[in-house]
Specification:
Layout: H1 7-32, H2 45-54, H3 60-73, H4 77-81, H5 85-92, H6 98-116, H7 124-128, H8 135-144, H9 155-164, H10 172-180, H11 188-201, H12 226-233
């Protein structure tokens, strides 16, 4: 009689299979989206940090329209730290949740001036100590400014990796750690951009284009009725 695999052995096999599939998916997405990158406009670490804070519950396109004028007025952390709250609120109003965002931006830049000599921190611990900065925002800075491999989990990354079976958690921080076990470390930053682009173009929340998806054969959601997919993922907003 053949030997039955233990639970631990089965888990290792399942992880290996998921890693193998993930590598194939990312190879395909790399060809589909050769220009995948952060789509927020910025010229320095501070600008990307401010833009990422504004991008919460807002499209990158709208944020870019707002920051076009915002970054002409506020050129460094000291400028934002000294900003008038009500004025800043009006300047960023189109991004939504403008009161909390304006308050966090001012407090964040005050802390940058007081504790980091006006420079954007280079570690996850220091970045997440800033008001309004969570792991996703910190990882965007680390991965796209400082060249550190990092996984930033936004709504697109969450949705696509759930459908692909790479992650199961609802909490973005937990998803980040689940993806660390699946995606090769040297691909973390780029993989997130590829997944975001795929989420926007093909694997949308309400009407995923499964019939034209280049990674459909590697997706466990294929065969599931579109209404079932929508019922599970419709709460998310693109």
């Amino acid at each position: 009689m053949g030997k039955t695999a233990s639970h631990g052995e089965k888990t290792r096999v399942d992880n290996l299979n998921t890693k193998t599939k993930a590598g194939k998916v990312l190879d395909i997405l790399g060809k589909d989206y050769p220009d995948a990158r952060v789509t927020l406009n910025f010229h320095d670490p501070l600008q990307l940090l401010m833009a990422t804070i504004l991008a919460a519950q807002c499209t990158d396109e709208r944020v870019n329209r707002v920051t076009k004028n915002l970054f002409r007025k506020y050129r460094n952390a000291a400028d934002f730290a000294q900003a008038d709250l009500e004025t800043l609120e009006e300047e960023i109003r189109p991004t939504g949740f403008y009161h909390n965002k304006a308050k966090n931006i001012i407090r964040c830049c005050q802390m940058i001036m007081q504790q980091f000599q006006g420079q954007i921190p280079r570690t996850l611990q220091d970045l997440t100590a800033l008001p309004g900065v969570g792991r996703k925002t910190a990882n965007i800075i680390l991965g796209n400014v400082y060249g550190q491999q990092a996984i930033a989990v936004d709504t697109h990354v969450k949705r696509v990796t759930h459908r692909l079976g790479w992650a199961q958690a609802d909490d973005p921080d937990k998803i980040e750690f689940q993806l660390m076990a699946v995606i090769p470390p040297n691909r973390w930053t780029l993989a997130c951009h590829q997944l975001v682009f795929h989420g926007r173009e093909i694997c949308s929340a309400q009407k995923p284009k499964c019939n034209t998806c280049s990674v459909a054969t590697l997706c466990p959601q294929i065969g599931v009725h579109p209404k079932e997919i929508r019922r599970k993922y419709v709460p998310e907003a693109d």
